[in-house]
Amino acid sequence: MSEPMKSSMFTSSNLLIKFVVAAALVSGVAYTVYVSISDGNISSDEINTIFDQALQKDPELVTTLCEENLNESAAVQAFLQNNSDSSITVDNDVLDTVEDRCNELLATTPSSSLGATSTSSSTTVSSNETTSDEVIDFDELFYEEYFNVKWHWDVIYWDIATDEIVTPYYQEIFPVIYIDEDSKEYQIITKAFQLWDDAFDTVSFEKDDSGSPNAQQITIGLVNDIPDEYGLFEIEWDENNEIIKASIIIEKDLDEYFLTAVLHEIGNVLGLGDIRTRGDLQSIMEDPYDEIFNDDKLWEFDIKMIKQLYEE
User: Fold this and answer.
1) Inter-CA distances, 62 with 45, 87, 90, 128, 181, Å
2) Distance in angstroms (rounded) separating the CA atoms of residues 111 and 55
3) What is the DSSP letter of 40?
4) Using one digit for the tens of pLDDT, what is the confidence trace for 262-298?
5) Domain 9-22+127-309: assigned CATH number
């Protein structure tokens, strides 16, 4: 079996497992830096990164490219080079990737709302967003971290690791920072589980106080630093696509982003995937995400997603 890598899924007989980066949240400001790539060839991941940053910086530029100049290789090359500060060779593979990304954007978001910023703190923000009567296409919505799995427990027990955390499948050991019940991090983690608990009825969360590491289905550990990321998660599920174990690793000193990161990771271990940053909805599952969650109820789109996933 291969070693764990970012955004990868691994298979083994009757078991599927993932250990991936899941919360690359940004620091609350729009993208202003260029994508750093080598001159010449460009990968599909680099193209998607350029699109994500261009949507934040100049959404009208993306709209013009996708609606008017998509078939012009010179326009595509100028768009990629101007947003990466590199000399790029535009071949058929590049054009295909750009076309796929444009089709995805135009299919899910009207051009007038590309890159728009939400001003609401508790409700969804666009009439184009999925209404309560519409079914969300998860395969289309989530660009990674979605595997069509979920829990089949009535109660999921969770706890905070105090010494080390062991990932459920790979059994990799991470030393963690001890926090007691009076710490702000402990209180925030408790609030995050309660917010998800309140969002749907199929599953409830309970803090495990047995002291046995085998009793928890979800274990959270805090660490001093995760290079380039805010959190990691691993989930383990069986041949019936039922999640049976999960772990979350969170960087401790995230300040006002701590609750946002924890909520995002819990959403991942419940079975939800990551959504590309967009302006026509408000979701804790957007990644990267530049809005801080400060509410006392999950946003409506997140509630709708989790209810649909668990068939409520």
Assistant:
1) 17, 19, 17, 19, 48
2) 11
3) B
4) 999 999 999 999 999 988 889 999 998 768 999 999 9
5) 3.40.390.10
The encoded tokens of residue 271 equal 């079975």
Structure pTM?
A: 0.61
pLDDT tens digits along 225-244: 877 778 889 999 999 999 99
Measured distance CA(65)–CA(145) in Å, rounded: 28
Q: Where in the chain is the domain with CATH 3.40.390.10?
A: 9-22+127-309
Closest CA to 225 of 284, 174, 286, 285: 174
* Residue closest to 7 by CA, chosen among 308, 287, 289: 287
Q: Provide CB contacts within 8 A for 247, sequence distance 6+.
A: 165, 166, 167, 168, 218, 219, 220, 221, 233, 234
Q: What are phi and psi of 189, to 5 degrees?
A: -60, -45
- Among left, alpha and beta (phi > 0; psi -120 to 50; other), residue 213 is alpha
- Residue 202 sits at φ, ψ, to 5 deg, of -65, -40
List the beta bridge partners of residue 284.
none
Within 8 A by CB and 6+ apart from 276, the residues are: 52, 143, 286, 287
Nearest Cα neighbor of 292 from 259, 250, 267 is 259
In DSSP terms, 222 is beta-bridged to 250
- Helix/strand/coil for 23: coil
CB 284 within 8 A of CB 302: yes
Beta-ladder partners of 274: 144
Distance between start and end Cα atoms, the chain: 37
